Amino acid sequence: MRFLRHERAVLDELLPGLDDTLTDYPWEVLERPESPAFEAFRKVGGPALLVPSEHSGTGADAVQAVRVQRAVASRSPSLAVATTMHHFSVAGLVETHRATQGLEWMLLEGVARDGLLLASGFAEGQPGRHILSPTMRAEQAQDGQILISGSKRPCSLARSMDLLTASVTVPLPDGGGTQMAVALIPADSHGLRVEPFWRTPLLAGAESEAVVLDRVPVPEDLLVRIDPGAAGGLDSLQTAGFLWFELLMTATYLGVASALAERVLRADRVPVTEQAALVVELEAVMGSVEGIAHRLGAGFGGQEALAAALVCRYAAQDSIARAVQRCVESLGGMAFISDPQVAYLAGCTQALAFHPPSRSRMAGALRDYFAGAALTMA
């Protein structure tokens, strides 16, 4: 079948063997807590996907990344959603290193070399906050370490993570004020605990639990301090972070919908008009995602790129909803009753609307942006 062929070809090229491994497992095994999908992802070098090649990574570009996410999501929605947060964290470190030329490269090499999984404790667009805005509280310890407290609910990869990345305001080394930093917190740190949070069976395999920090000590070498005066400054880092987040997450949920569409395309009794309509709906979304990803490689960025990514994501929500409804109707009531995966995939696609920033919160900001104002994140 030509549908999803390009995406799965890129997946096989960059993470060889992962697609075959995922198809070997029953879908319900991949989608439950303690899923074997994360170990399979590590074994094929998945954590290194967005680490630049000069830092021992795979060095996938944005187009390859969104194709990989769509292909993975068509096999395991939970794995795709969880690893989107890992890739987002890695992309943020890459952007920070490009802006500051700091020591972030050491962590990036560690991710690639040791297959480290990064969970994200960033704000992700909470009301009044940017992705890199402080989400944790910090205090200075007498031994020079920083003690960090706070929580992230939900936090994907909560039980499989090696490191938690979180934004925090820390004292300047000379004691004269504060600055923002990204804290890299080992999962086995004293004072860090994981608590149950996710109660729905949908996407349970993503391990989206609560991560709670109670005065967790973080040494200086695990703090990535960000200088607001560095090239690009904080605004460009925040914008780049949101941009990667929206593209990767849109491609992920498109992949979940594509898994349903693939069933419809294999069903001989479904009218060709319905099958063609599904392909048009979903491939149009992928074309939009890839279009923005292609432009990123040519220097497209800043608020213009972020606005385009948001427009693409909100349009995708509508297209995916229409496509999923068509899929469920086309497959019929007996398929819905007899095959739990149909209802599962359909339910999973609803979660795209819950990822920040919500369409309702961004409505005024997008209207103002296209009327000529600067883009602000609600």
From TrEMBL:
Show the Gene3D superfamilies listed in the entry: Acyl-CoA dehydrogenase/oxidase, N-terminal domain (1.10.540.10), Butyryl-CoA Dehydrogenase, subunit A, domain 2 (2.40.110.10)
Asked if the keyword Magnesium belongs to this entry, the reply reads no
Q: Which domain of life is it from?
A: Bacteria
Q: Which UniProt keywords apply?
A: FAD, Flavoprotein, Oxidoreductase
- GO molecular function per UniProt: acyl-CoA dehydrogenase activity; flavin adenine dinucleotide binding
Its protein name is Isobutylamine N-hydroxylase
Which species is the source of this protein?
Answer: Streptomyces diastatochromogenes
Q: What does UniProt list as this organism's lineage? A: Bacteria, Bacillati, Actinomycetota, Actinomycetes, Kitasatosporales
